[in-house]
Structures are given as structure tokens and as C-alpha cells.
Amino acid sequence: MLKIVFGAALAAGVLAAQTLPAPTCNLVPGWTQSGAARTYESDNLFEYMDGNAEGYLIYGFQKMQGVSCKKGEITFVMDVSDMGDADSAYGIFTANFDSRQPGNKIGMGGQIQPRRAVFSKGQYYVEIGANPEGDHTAALTEWTAALEKTISGRTDVPPAMSWFPTEKRTGLRLVPESALGLRLLKRGYVAQYDFGKAFVVFEASPESAAAVMQKLKARFGDTTPATIADEAFQANDKYLGKLCFFRKGSYIGGYTISQDGNDGVALATALADKVR
Asked: Where are the domains of the chain?
């Protein structure tokens, strides 16, 4: 069974096993280092990113290694961030992905635009910013290929991405906190459909997941039991509509339905069968 745990113990174990790769300017001929190399951790990332640091920290940011490389009048600002695990790295990548533009097959996923390139591979998230203005696509493509070779880790998307049906799906992403806008539902995946939403969130243990289910029942009030996985219930909510939530081990998942004609129990049952 796949176990995805977003906890300090797992992050510490991963950090001990792997070393954050530091980008260097000699990876591509003709480039030289401009200024000192950068290293940031969670407690001082704000010194580098100011108001943007929180967007990294909520995805589990651990550490960053960066360098600026120069060729003629062109400067590339490159940063490699350890996000703790592949789910978090892919999550921050999708959060920064421009859905109006095509993606590129780099690691688990990538995107190269005229002045910016990003990709995720394993537990790492990589970004390159180019100055001055202009189309730097060719050089960014060369650099992303060179950087990817220095980074170890998975190149297939996280398994949870395959749990959600693709039919009528309009979006799917890792939500770092408050899935469905509910504080009780912490980090997990949320899929958007034209008739509502599906989600799977991760708890540390079956016991903690069971405790959350009890709190959810209290939150929604009038609930009806359903026979799905370890436990499940149906309810109606003023904001979420009709809903069906289930627990399977340490996972909590389900559907919220905003359009009539969709069977929440059947949909939630099919989703629970996919969760591993």
C-alpha cells in the first residue's frame, strides 16, 4: 500500500538520504557565475523571496540552493528547492504552472516559456528566471536538460494523480492546506469536475483519520451512513452541496456534488477502490 506521510520524520529521513543538488554555471559551456551562490532554509527564505516565501513553506519547503549565471548580457537566476517529497515538489510545480501555455516533458513535469522555466523531479523543484526581456527559450531548454541530469528522483507523476477519473475533469492539484476550504481537511489532492469536486487527503494514521471523520460529522450535523471502505457518510451543506465522504485507512476522500443527476455514493466508492 502506498503511504504518503507529510511529517517531519519523513522529511528528515529523506534529507538524510539525499543531498540537495547545487546548480553550477559550468553545466552549460559559455556561462560564468555572477555573484555568490545562494543557500536558504525555511527560517530565512523570506530574506530572498520576501512576500513569496509563504507560497513555498506551505508546500513543505526544506532548503534551496541557487546561483546566477551570466553569458554576455544575459543572466539566468537558477534555484533548486528540496520540497521534502515528490508530492510536494509536483504540487508547487502545478501551482506555478501557466495553464494557458503548453507543458514540457521534464522530470515529473515542466514548462519552458521565453523568460522562465520550471520543472519538478523527485522531491526537487527547479526554476530559472531570465533577464533581460526577450525570447530565451533555446537557452532555457539547454539549461533545463543539463540540470535535470544532475537531479535524482522519480520522473512519473505521483500515484495519487491516477486515482481521479479523467472524464469531465477540469483540474487536479495538490492543496497544501484546508482542502475544500475546510480546516479539518489538511493536505491532499483536489480534482475539479463540471459537476463538483473530488478529493483525497492524507492523515498520519488511521486513528487520526477516524478522529477527523468524527469531527466532520459534527461539522455537517445531519449525516447518513454509507457503506464505503472503512466508514463513510452522506450529508448536505449550504456551500458544498451534496457530499459523500469516506475513510480508507489513513486517507479521507469523497465528492461534493453541485449538480443533480450525479450519484455521490457511486462516485465515492469508485474513488475509494483506487486509493492505495
From this structure: 8-149, 159-274
Burial class from Cβ neighbours inside 10 Å (0-12, 13-18, 19+) for residue 214 reads: exposed
Query: For residue 95, what is the enclosing H or E element?
Result: helix 86-96
Residue type, 119: F
| CATH, domain range 159-274 | 3.40.1000.20
Condensed to tens digits (0 to 9), the pLDDT of residues 228-263 reads 999 999 999 999 999 999 999 999 999 999 999 999
Select the CATH number that applies to the domain covering 8-149 from these four: 3.40.1000, 3.30.870, 1.10.600, 1.10.287: 3.40.1000
Quick one: how far is CA 142 from the chain centroid?
25
Predicted model pTM: 0.85
Q: Summarize pLDDT for 266-275 with one digit per residue, the tens.
A: 999 999 999 9
Using alpha carbons, select from 48, 62, 58, 177 the residue that is nearest to residue 125: 62
Measured between alpha carbons, how far is 267 from 264 in angstroms, rounded to an integer?
A: 5
Whether 8-149 shares its CATH topology with 159-274 is answered yes
Residue written as grid cell 462516485: 267
Per-residue pLDDT tens over the stretch 103-113:
999 999 999 99
